[in-house]
Amino acid sequence: MVDVKDKGGTVVVTIQPACPPPLKINHDIRSPLDPEWTIVENDIPESPSTPRPTDEDRYGFMVKPGEDVLNYDPKLDVKKTREREQKWLKMTSNWKDWMDNKRPRVKERCRKGIPDSLRGRVWMLLSGADELLKEHKGEFDELVARPDNDVVIHVIDKDLGRTFPSHVLFAKKGSQGQEDLRLVLKAYAMYNEKTGYCQAMAPVAATLLMHMPAEHAFWCLVQICEQYLPGYYSPGLHAFQIDALILKDLISKYLPVIGHFLDSKLPPTSPNEINRGLDPVLYCTEWFMSMYSRSLPWPTVLRIWDMFFFEGVKVLFKVGLAILNIAFNKPKDREECIGFFEVTQILRNLPLSVTHEDILIPEVIRFPIHNRELHKEHIQQADYHFSEERARIMEMQARRVQARKSFSTLSEATSEGP
Prior knowledge:
Shape: globular
Oligomer: single chain
Number of helices: 20
């Protein structure tokens, strides 16, 4: 467990013995939307000092003693955890009323974090995937039963071993976790043949599989790809590229000093070139495409996903701004980054003093970004992005026409002889 304290403006991070696992829910994993879930008394640890296996943390990641740094175990208050579970059980048993009449309270509780034992169930409800599951009974089985597309399956199979290899579900080749991941990714490639399979889908689908069965994970993935992040995984990644431009504008608006600092680290390569600065694509591709699942400690990732399923894509932007603000807010932090290489190294290897949930999440909540603002930015950047894209395509076509004319002229001259 990692304990973070603020002593006179200095963040102190210490590693302490881990706490017991969270409370378990007595349920059939094949029916996680059953409203009759109850807390089992015997599942409550007898003592906060109850030991747990040292070969994996409470999230299923394999760790060595003393090396539980990336996926640290936050302190667990058993009594408080049970109280929170009871609150969420009451909410989910009357979900429509809460979403219709008490949305601010649901939002507040999502920001505080969903209990581990109920996370998969709540993600399904928040995303609307539970409704798709009911409306399309049997479709997942039909999709996975279709003949394999050899090209797509080959790429998926190559990515299985690269996806969370330190997690018990996916560590062993041919494991049930890898097989479920293969089926979910294949099913989506069949479900949306225009988008097909994108490598960045794998960690997203795997994160879902850590909390729910394959069929539920599939419909949750559908909602992420079709509703939350439409176009992110399509060929060309145009939607993501637009969001990277939006992030750059938001940095200039909310973090002007840091924006200027980042711009100064990648000057123009020629006198006539406009200084566009450090392109966010260089560091936010993995952040956004994997929804931070490959970039941050696991407790922080789960808190971000809890907010994301309620608040939407704006959470990804707010997390990006929060990371930059914490990492480069102090003049000393900026002075230590001499150039482009140092900046990108920090952003790719963020310290726990930036990424710990108790530090990062309050900063995320602080940024007042609204969906209306993002919608306006999206329209502006889409117009700019696609007009620029059209200009490049037209220029390319003009060059090809000129090349064909030149080739034709050369061919005629050659055929006529000297």
